[in-house]
């Protein structure tokens, strides 16, 4: 039931208005002055006020200003009762905060029409307030869910980064450095290595299709298949009769992973992969490429060449085969295995860095080694793209054979 406050210094006028309003179903309170009305408004704010303009002490205009200055949870509709009809007086009333006017003496039909109009506005205001409350409540709930998800993603990022816990390793004749930079909290790139013997190590670079949580979960599962700590679970290794382990040909391992993904994993994801078998004593590196970008081989003299045979991504074609290829690295040579986030980095005009651009960067970083080289590579990409927010995950492995010692 709407609450109406009738304010008039004339008791007879108040009774006439109150009788009509009560007959129409409103709850009515009366006040004989503006000060008395303000007290009522503070204690029990009305939905609608009908106030005479001309009253001793605080007149209706002053009361209206005070009424508008009061803090309240919902809107209060204010009607001024006046014998004034000039445009200037009406403008003063509107400036003071009045919503409507009724000319005295009040006509019952006009009163009912004005009250009905005010009631419609109040009803719309209440509905809007309720909708805003629901929107705010929903937004608060969404923010809470977002904060929880954001916290989970931060923890997921830590877990994914922990898959590459060893970022640099000195193997004697050569050093291996790893870099993993996701475009979001988590991503679909993964790089790693696994020692096999004192002279043999395996390297891998993976790029799962898509971005985000599902891609990150895929990389976590693949990390288990190429584990450095559980050789029995590593699909790239073969257990020998004497209990030692040997690397399978990289192409054979990738073909096995391809069938495993198609037969055992219910996923729409596929991934590119480059798997390498590094012989530290001879410098021979045997690799197989499954849709991954061509690795960059930089000779000791600074010359850069892109090597590889291409190949299909893993998880697309049943029975796909993968070809091994070899390079022999000499002291001072280095090999970079990188994801497409490097060569497909785009400048503001949309032009890609591509293989020539990467070759130029490696030439510029010829004297920069190890992790410093990979960190500088990221800065070069950011400078090329003119933004810190790279649109794709960026990962790389840098295999560097140490220069021959100078004799003399």
From TrEMBL:
Keywords: Hydrolase, Phosphoprotein. One of its GO terms (molecular function) is phosphatase activity. Residues 3-119 form the Response regulatory domain. The keyword Cell membrane does not apply. SUPFAM superfamilies: CheY-like (SSF52172), PP2C-like (SSF81606). It comes from the Bacteria. This is Fused response regulator/phosphatase. The lineage of its organism: Bacteria, Pseudomonadati, Pseudomonadota, Alphaproteobacteria, Rhodobacterales.
